[in-house]
Design brief:
The chain is built from nine helices and 39 strands. By secondary structure, it is mainly beta. It has a domain of about 90 residues. The chain has a 22-stranded antiparallel β-barrel. The protein has a four-stranded mixed sheet with strand order 12-15-16-24. Strands 1-2 form a two-stranded antiparallel sheet. A hairpin with a 2-residue loop joins strand 28 and strand 29. The chain is globular.
Length: about 950
Amino acid sequence: MTGFARMRQEVRVAPGVPLGKLELKLLSREEVNVLTTAPPVSISAAVAKAEEHVEQTGEKTAEPVMPSHDAGQDATDGLLINGSVNNAAASPFAQSGAFGNNRGGAKGLYTGGIGLILDNSALDAKAFSLTGQQAPKPGYSNLTGVLTFGGPLRIPHLLRNGVNVFVGYQWTRNRSDTTQPGLVPTLTERNGMIPGNIIPPSLISPQARSLLGVYPLPNFTGSSQYNYQVALVTPLHRDALQSRFNRRLDAKNELYGGFAFQSVRTDTPNLLGYFDTTDTLGMNAHANWSHRVSHEWLMDLGYEFSRFSSRVTPYFANRENVSGMAGIAGNNQAPINWGPPTITFASGIASLTDASPSANHNQTGVVSLSLLWNHHVHSITVGGDFRREQFNSLWQQNPRGTFTFTGAATGNDFGDFLLGIPDTTAIAFGNADKYFRESVYDGYFNDDWRVSSGFTLNAGVRWEYGAPMTERYNRLVNLGIAPDYSEASPVLASNPINSLTGQRWPNSLIRPDKTGVEPRIGIAWRPLSGTSLVVRAGYGVYYNTSVYQSITSQLAQQPPLSKSFSVQNSVADPLTLADGFNATPASITNTFAIDPNFRAGYAQNWQTSVQSELPGSLQIVATYLGIKGTRGLQEFLPNTVPIGALNPCARCLAGYVDLTSNGNSTRESGQVQLRRRLHNGFTATLEYTFSKSIDDVSSLGGQGVVAASSAAQNPTAANAPGAGQTPSASMAGSASIAQNWLDLSAERGLSTFDQRHLLTLQMQYTTGMGIGGGTLLNGWRGTLLKEWTVATLITAGSGLPLTPVYLAAVPGTGFTGTIRPEYTGAALYAAPPGLSLNPAAYTAPLPGQWGNAGRDSVTGPGQFSLNLSMGRTFRLKDRLNLDLRIDSTNALNHVTFTSWNTTINNAQFGLPVAANAMRSLQTVLRLRF
């Protein structure tokens, strides 16, 4: 090292032999001058010389020009006393000019890589069979190719110091297999022999006979829950490009940005033997200008443009008019919408369904400006963004229609089907092209104040406003509803006047909410100086400004712009398979309405954590997190009564979903994390979380609270979601809709994402680190055993809540799936052999009463996963490395079910719905330079 005399000393390494001391001799000034071949140059002089170069040439050198080393210095002289490498730093102890990233001359430093990710079915386990039947294992191979390249663009004699660029490309051709079970009609059932009844062939509906041709016959027997199983292979093709650039124009100005695109093509197979294709293409480009106004002020101005397009092509589109050939009238039978209607059975017979065709072209433009002021102990950021979004789509919500059979006519849902008597029908088509527009604004102020060496305060405020979406040609319809829900009248965006009240609405049909002020504060405090104890705390408010898209989509599929209704079979509206979509409901046929005073939801987040170091390279962190969601979405069916009850207001309008923003949610969690820092090649993190989440938010069970939790941990996110959720788009209804519209408080229960216990363990070990890890191994043993990294991730958690359902039509509507059963008091989890839930725990609701089973009152199956990874980097040459990694997902091949079937009048009640993927093995090879 410069300034010290050269030294040579043998170090004997053996058990019980001390290493001794290294005696360094500091040279005198005269001795240093003798060794130095060039006059000393100060750091300030080097910086001044670099700035002079910029002014004269307009080019920015990579680093200030530093003095050269004397000829007697080795490359190891660049190793600092503290053991780190001062790579190309402005210091007399810097590395030589050809070390690491400090490479002078005309040639630039380029990095890149070529990689392959390989997987083959021969190394993967067979998909789990829920029926217990052996299923064939399809053969497949997965391949992903990766190319990366980065460095400065230089063209001899034209461009000396060009733009620094990085380009990465991924080419993926994957296939995955699953084993899917189902229950299909048997040959005797198709001929009219159903349990408890025999339907003469002469009474079987010709429409039913025709639709049965789409169903396969059973391929095994002996089970009342399943009689059909098939192995499905899903192919996926993906091409993705990522690129970024940066160019320093001078000492005060820099340009940077990037461009990325991804194209995905996939075929989704169906249990019944056909598949739908989905093609997507997305691209994103952004450019930023960074300008240093002064040594305290920094400005950043940016623009981002993104575009996404997708196309879904159903199997039967332009191929076979299943509805038309079956003699079903009233639905959309344009060639693009050819195919069968959706047929749903309460008993668990596999639904007949196919995707709806769609073409979407969405784009977003964002302008952003931020100013950073570093002043003494303050770092103040001020800025804002404007985002203009377009959602252009060609699709229809339910063009082929839906028939639901619950057994209301004969006591057997398949018997009703054979007779052609559905319990409910639903349809929605027309006004196919839609052009939604939305503007989103935000502004923020934040101060990172270093109050003292042991206390930092981060405080600020953010304002966000997402304007309710509009349709370019004002083709939206809402319902103006009387305060007592006795009357309703359509309100069109083209003439937004509520005829019941005379009030004028905005053309979005939802009044704007500009009150999205979001204060935020956080502290970091070291209460005892000189110790490792650190206390952190924070509070913030986060609004959901992206709640309007799905809402507006439903407003665009309403009469009088569209044919849309959801009705129940009755004397007034007799329904059949032949003309179930030609029903003439006596009331308004709109199926969706939203409160015009709807407000975007928000979440309040508060968090406290305590961190401390422990002996043995350990660190412990205890965290408490609380979240309060307000203005969550609530959906209910006005003017509905339980099955068998008299309707107190028979003239009142029913048959539509009303959406309001009156829901609330809470989540509280405690987390303890124990981390072992990397020491002797081993590091690990053990984390346990205990939490409880409750809400009365009908749509998606309050999932927006989770999004808000993520936003709380990343307060710099430009669009942190709040407590609002996406409403149900299903015409047939779902358990997300409140059961009793007059008692919404009864919907309060566990959130669908409430996982009471969650334990994760992440471990990593690298061989050849530390004396005990074999760091001193050499020869063939060292070559073979050192530098391997083995990692594992183990996750174990309790089950998620599920809602029990009694599948029947809500009286006076065409909605099903919102009624809950009656709890009998029997032990729910004392299930008979072969089941995980006890069917005796529930029964049909008592006549004239709503079911008393609570929402999300069933606990789903526990979750477990163990993944392994092993890898190593082989150093082939100075700048040529080969990475090898082997990843195993579900390494133990452990069967983990996703959820239970909780529909009590379904043959599969108490059985698992699906199983997570079984063991797979993937090999990654990457050559880097």
